[in-house]
Amino acid sequence: MFNHILVGVDGSEHSIKAAKMAGELARKISAESLHLVACYDAALQYSMMTEFNSILPMQDLTSRLISIAEDNLKLAIEEIGDLPIQITTETSEGTPAESILMVARKYDIDLIVMGTRGLGQLAGLLLGSQSQKVVAHADCPVLLVR
Predict the structure, then answer these.
(1) So where are the chain's domains?
(2) By the 8 A CB rule, do 118 and 96 touch?
(3) How far apart are CA 34 and CA 86, in angstroms?
(4) How far apart are the C-alpha atoms of 64 and 77, rounded to whole Å?
(5) Cα 109 from Cα 124, distance rounded (Å)
């Protein structure tokens, strides 16, 4: 039923719990693959920095955000542990909802797992809940983890 599972990670406590749950679920149901995606939104971060007069060249900011996203993926993989299935990781530029939905369509995902709250609390207040957007627009079931 759920052969291909996707989990979005941002390093937050909720996303790490979601990654652990996705790993356990994949083990129990003998899923074929587990996909982890971490996103970064350089344009949003850059606009927030310029509002506070903290200028960093866009290329440096993007490199820094990609590095953070990759670290978040490594942390999630450590927390998941060994799985006897294919695990893929991906960093994606854009908002969490856009990134998760794009990767879900790319890999024909059967189930999306994500935390109910991430690190972007300020952005969440301004842009709306990322998990709510995924639930509203996903082509597959979405499991939200607290």
Answers:
(1) 4-40+70-145
(2) yes
(3) 6
(4) 20
(5) 25
3-state class (DSSP) for residue 114: strand
- Strand arrangement of the beta sheet that strand 33-40 belongs to: 86-93, 33-40, 4-8, 111-115, 142-145
Encoded amino acid at 48, one letter: M
Cβ–Cβ under 8 Å, residues 124 and 10: no
User: What span, in angstroms and rounded, lies between the C-alpha atoms of 132 and 1?
Assistant: 23
- 9-63 pLDDT tens trace: 999 999 999 999 999 999 999 999 999 999 988 766 655 555 554 566 767 778 8
pLDDT tens sequence across 91-145: 999 999 999 999 999 999 999 999 987 555 454 444 458 899 999 999 999 999 9
Its CATH class, for the domain covering 4-40+70-145, is: alpha beta
Angle at 107 between CA 103 and CA 109, to 5 degrees: 90
Q: Do the Cβ atoms of 26 and 34 come closer than 8 Å?
A: yes
Predicted structure pTM score? 0.85
